[in-house]
Amino acid sequence: MISGAHVILYSQDAEADRAFIRDVLAFPGVDAGGGWLIFKLPPAEVAVHPTDGPPQHEFFLMCDDLDTQLGEFRAQGVEVTRPVSEQRWGKLTAIRLPSGAELPLYEPLHPIAHSL
Fold it and tell me: Does the keyword section mention Cell wall biogenesis/degradation (predicted)?
């Protein structure tokens, strides 16, 4: 039986991004050995979208109130990398990880599955 999902983010500065996830996002975690941190994620859901191009995977964080969340991030010095855009399915933006990578985040306007 499937018991969970394991998401991997590849990073040019894994230690800094792990510290960001621990300290800024405040996700609890475990040390899998040698400082290799693995974090508990909030409830999750998966969607499968059609594509005409090569298959790819994306990772987004979801929030209930994007404007409030962005205010909290800005107060902590987190860079917001994209202006908030209104999509048919939600409000979308992204923040900068210490490694320079973007982490998309959105406030869904669609029914959510993660609490089923």
Answer: no
